[in-house]
Specification:
This protein is an alpha/beta fold. The protein has helices at 17-28, 40-50, 64-78, 101-122, 148-167, 198-208, 217-228, and strands at 8-11, 32-37, 55-58, 81-86, 126-135, 174-180, 238-241. The structure holds nicotinamide-adenine-dinucleotide (NAD).
């Protein structure tokens, strides 16, 4: 039997990169998936590509009313869900002295506030015994150049997740963090690294990774699948999936 047969999973940022690979993997394992993203056409195209009757809902995770609308849609369509993956996130690299107020707010609004209010809205709909996966980053625990604001916005997630694991214990809901190292997704084009500098940047990253290469979205999806399915005794952890980059 497939490991997520009959389960319902909601994945924010499921129209791209790690989120889309996770949605595809969950669907292959029998889950009904609902993905979210910012652009209607991209969300619809991704849902069609994932197949298995995947659904898409469009909206901005930094807005609280989006999460309320999503929760209402989920309640109407399914009544309850089993897995919530808070994956949507943004990054742009900048030295602290050059960070603007709006870039600071954008990181915290999407990466931290978006996760907090997403879980607040959806948690009442998660069935007892379900689980939450929060996508953080290796940058939350490892110092990387120009990552300070991004790192801060992701570091908050570990504290949220630890507290939620205890808050939801009576419902048997597990809460875990998935922290990728560098992974080949569209986010790499949004770092603020110029096209000319990109090959050098990627070569430098790969050099810092004992595996000698960046990760693939499918490798993160496999780790998320473990947390969502077979990892029934895994709770309150941060699973770092980085090819060993935390060691260098
Ligand atoms: P991606 O750019 O391919 O996907 C990001 C997703 O987040 C997209 O679906 C996008 O629509 C969504 N998103 C961004 N801002 C949003 C908003 N305001 N409202 C709604 N949706 C929004 O990148 P990815 O690499 O797949 O990133 C997924 C997660 O993994 C992010 O949280 C990212 O911080 C984290 N991460 C990625 C890497 C990496 O190297 N790729 C490393 C560490 C952590």
């Amino acid at each position: 039997m497939r490991s997520l047969e009959g389960k319902i999973a909601v994945i924010t940022g499921g129209n791209s990169g790690i989120g889309k690979a996770t949605a595809r993997r969950f669907a292959e394992e029998g889950a009904q998936v609902l993905i979210t993203g910012r652009r209607q056409d991209v969300v619809e195209a991704a849902a069609a590509e994932i197949g298995h009757q995947a659904l898409g809902v469009c909206g901005d995770v930094s807005q609280i009313d989006f999460h309320q609308r999503l929760a209402e849609t989920v309640r109407r369509k399914f009544g309850a869900i089993d897995i919530y993956v808070a994956n949507a996130g943004v990054i742009s690299l900048e030295g602290s002295s050059r960070v603007t107020e709006s870039e600071f707010d954008r990181h915290f609004d999407i990466n931290a506030r978006g996760v907090f209010f997403g879980v607040q809205a959806v948690a009442p709909l998660i069935r007892d015994g379900g689980n939450i996966i929060v996508t953080s980053s290796l940058a939350a625990t490892k110092v990387l150049p120009q990552h300070t604001v991004y790192a801060g916005s992701k570091a908050a997630l570990a504290a949220f997740a630890r507290n939620w694991a205890i808050e939801f214990r009576n419902r048997g809901i597990r809460v875990n963090i998935l922290s990728p190292g560098p992974v080949e997704t569209e986010i790499l084009g949004k770092l603020g690294v110029s096209d000319a500098d990109r090959p050098g940047f990627e070569a430098h990253m790969a050099d810092l990774i004992p595996a000698g290469r960046m990760g693939r979205p499918e490798e993160l999806a496999e780790a998320a699948l473990f947390l969502a399915s077979k990892g029934t005794f895994v709770n309150g952890i941060e699973l770092i999936v980085d090819g060993g980059m935390h060691l260098t």
